[in-house]
């Protein structure tokens, strides 16, 4: 699961509002972090086994069988 950052983290210019650009920047940073977690060998590419291993870890964390099909 992706965790939504706190409002203050999204509101980079601290004006009390989150612009589309601020939100997009936070999402990009989140995607980069998730990619790094998935890319276990650090080669900058995702292999099927890396994605499958992450999927199995996710299902274990939520208490579902690893062979559960994704929606």
Question: Can you give a write-up of this model?
Answer:
This protein is mainly alpha-helical. It contains three helices and no strands. The model has no long low-confidence stretch (mean pLDDT 87).
Secondary structure: elements and pairs:
Blueprint: H1 7-10, H2 20-38, H3 48-61
Residue ranges: pLDDT <50 for 5 or more in a row? Answer: none
Which word captures the global form?
elongated
What radius of gyration results from the CA coordinates? 16 Å
- Mean of the pLDDT scores? 87
Give the number of helices: 3
| Helix fraction by DSSP (H/I, runs of at least 4) | 40-55%
Structural class designation: mainly alpha
Alpha carbon gap, first and last residue: 14 Å
Strand content: under 5%
Number of strands: 0
Sheet with the most strands? none
Element order, helices and strands?
Answer: HHH
Short recap of the structure:
The model has no long low-confidence stretch (mean pLDDT 87). The chain is mainly α and 71 residues long. It has helices at 7-10, 20-38, 48-61.
Task: Provide keyphrases for this structure.
mainly alpha, 52% helix
């Amino acid at each position: 699961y992706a965790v939504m950052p706190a409002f203050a983290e999204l509101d980079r210019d601290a004006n009390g509002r989150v612009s589309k650009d601020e939100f997009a920047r936070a999402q990009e940073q989140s995607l980069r972090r998730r990619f790094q977690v998935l890319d276990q060998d650090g080669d900058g590419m995702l292999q099927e086994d890396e994605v499958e291993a992450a999927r199995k870890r996710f299902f274990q964390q939520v208490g579902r069988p690893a062979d559960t099909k994704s929606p």
